[in-house]
């Protein structure tokens, strides 16, 4: 039977841990002694997702792998919840624990306002390594609209430059169908960004957008068409691929968060800029350790 919750009531959070609720959670998750002193066991079936969490789906393969680990080692790091049993940090662990058959899991209880819950959910989502550029833009818009934060404040919260935040948010000026295609990983940041210069030329934008979807033209080709002021339907179309190749492309795109193409013995991974390249290399474990 789960014991009574020991609430971790933070007062004067800004003075103790910094401006963001992310700082608070970071202290607990990185300080095992503090976490262990405040953890309690809770019924896993009583826990609910953060209502402000924008991420609604989790990869089954990743959850099953984590569940297998939990069966052997248990949950090493407590999840963090509020006094309504809503998960602040650790939804993947909670889902995997259910798969592993656990009835109770360790948790640390924080008393947070709804504004803090929303802020953490959005910022946690932004810090995902597989986050798409358009998802990042939507998250910044949420921080701006819902929490009334200026771009400078958003940049401080998420550890990015103001110019980066401003450039990413410009993607929201694209037509909704382009944004949707980016969310579905049918269009990359490199392909979409040039379209911002022709948002007022609906006919040209629609023509080029159609070619991107049908022919997977490169960002450079998009830029050249915009310079010429016309779409070139003569671009070579992609040869139909085996289902197994398409499956692997889609799997890699979901993992890397960018366009991936496997064709004629060549693997192509798209990236929009140096920052995006470093992100991909980090996922692949190819960054320098020192």
Provide a quick synopsis of the model.
The chain is an alpha/beta fold. It has helices spanning 13-17, 21-30, 32-38, 60-73, 91-100, 114-126, 133-146, 151-158, 162-169, 176-183, 189-192, 202-215, 219-228, 243-256, 274-283, and strands spanning 7-8, 40-43, 79-82, 87-89, 104-110, 260-263, 266-269.
Provide structural commentary.
This protein is α/β, with parallel strands linked by helices. The protein has four domains: 7-114, Conserved hypothetical protein from pyrococcus furiosus pfu- 392566-001, ParB domain, CATH 3.90.1530.30; 128-173, Arc Repressor Mutant, subunit A (Orthogonal Bundle), CATH 1.10.10; 175-238, no CATH class; 243-283, no CATH class. The protein is built from 15 helices and seven strands. The chain has helices spanning 13-17, 21-30, 32-38, 60-73, 91-100, 114-126, 133-146, 151-158, 162-169, 176-183, 189-192, 202-215, 219-228, 243-256, 274-283; strands spanning 7-8, 40-43, 79-82, 87-89, 104-110, 260-263, 266-269. The strands form two sheets. Strands 1, 2, 3, 4 and 5 form a five-stranded mixed sheet that branches. It has a two-stranded antiparallel ribbon with strand order 6-7. A hairpin with a 4-residue loop joins strand 3 (79-82) and strand 4. Helix 4 (60-73) packs across helix 5 (91-100), helix 6 packs antiparallel against helix 7 (133-146) and helix 8 (151-158) packs across helix 9. The longest helix has 14 residues, at 60-73. The chain is globular and about 65 Å long. The N and C termini lie far apart (47 Å). The model is unreliable at 1-19 (pLDDT under 50).
């Amino acid at each position: 039977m789960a014991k009574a919750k020991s609430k971790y009531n933070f007062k004067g959070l800004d003075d103790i841990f910094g401006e963001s609720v992310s700082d608070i959670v970071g202290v607990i998750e990185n300080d095992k002694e503090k976490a262990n002193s405040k953890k309690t066991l809770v019924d896993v079936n009583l826990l609910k997702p953060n209502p402000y969490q924008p991420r609604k789906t989790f990869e089954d393969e990743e959850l099953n792998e984590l569940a297998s680990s939990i069966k052997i080692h248990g949950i090493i790091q407590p999840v963090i919840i509020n006094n309504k049993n809503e998960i602040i940090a650790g939804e993947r662990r909670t889902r995997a624990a259910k798969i592993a058959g656990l009835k109770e899991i360790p948790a640390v209880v924080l008393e947070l306002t709804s504004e803090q819950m929303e802020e953490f959910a959005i910022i946690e989502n932004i810090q995902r390594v597989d986050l798409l550029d358009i998802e990042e833009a939507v998250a910044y818009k949420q921080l701006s609209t819902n929490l009334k934060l200026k771009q400078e404040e958003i940049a401080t919260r998420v550890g990015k430059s103001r110019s980066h935040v401003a450039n990413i948010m410009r993607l929201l000026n694209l037509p909704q169908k382009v944004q949707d295609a980016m969310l579905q990983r049918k269009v990359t940041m490199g392909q979409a960004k040039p379209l911002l210069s022709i948002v007022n030329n609906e006919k040209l934008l629609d023509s080029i957008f159609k070619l991107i979807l049908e022919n997977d033209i490169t960002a450079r080709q998009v830029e050249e068409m915009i310079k010429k002021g016309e779409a070139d339907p003569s671009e070579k179309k992609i040869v139909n691929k085996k289902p197994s190749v398409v499956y692997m492309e889609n799997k890699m795109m979901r993992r890397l968060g960018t366009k991936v193409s496997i064709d004629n013995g060549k693997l192509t991974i798209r990236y929009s800029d140096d920052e995006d390249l470093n992100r991909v290399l980090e996922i692949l474990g190819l960054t320098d350790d020192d």
